[in-house]
């Protein structure tokens, strides 16, 4: 199967969400599976399972620091997106890939494990938590939604981003495990431009696609 890659560069969360919905309609209408890459302006997003106590400070304080706060309809709790982090939105027809949401989540995890391995890391799953982990440190977060068997939202892969904002929340509602990044784990800068081809290659391998 053939897929396509759409690189939005750096974009605010809400404009990117509008673009996601447009691409979703295209894929529902028969367009190829589409992998969206984007770096967001600083934002905390609140998922469908958000618990208010996981915001450690008032929303006004985050906004004072230049970080937007938005509710979303993805799964999961609160997380942070910002420059230097690669956000990956796979707008895929899940019916083409097993029509199984549990398998879909495991396959998304596998793309991040494969990406991390390409940088010489030894990642793992960490049930019952989702995402990709290195030891007890979370490298990539996953939160999705599906409409008409076409996926929305996706993955946040920490590359070379400032990790400080994660300390102002309880990321994904997990208080006892820190967040990490490709740069921290590889002990060298690994930016989003270096990560993008590795992620695309991982998706191609896991889902049998050619981009």
Key attributes of the depicted protein:
alpha+beta; 211 residues; 5 helices; 3-stranded mixed β-sheet; single chain
Question: Can you describe what's shown?
Answer:
The chain is an alpha+beta fold and 211 residues long. The chain has one domain: Bira Bifunctional Protein, Domain 2 (BirA Bifunctional Protein, domain 2), CATH 3.30.930.10. It is built from five helices and ten strands; from the N terminus they run E-H-E-E-H-E-E-E-H-E-E-E-E-H-H. It has a seven-stranded mixed sheet. Strand 1, helix 1 (13-28) and strand 2 form a beta-alpha-beta unit. Helix 3 (101-117) crosses helix 5. The longest helix is centred in the middle third of the chain and has 17 residues, at 101-117. The radius of gyration is 16 Å and the shape is globular. The mean pLDDT is 97.
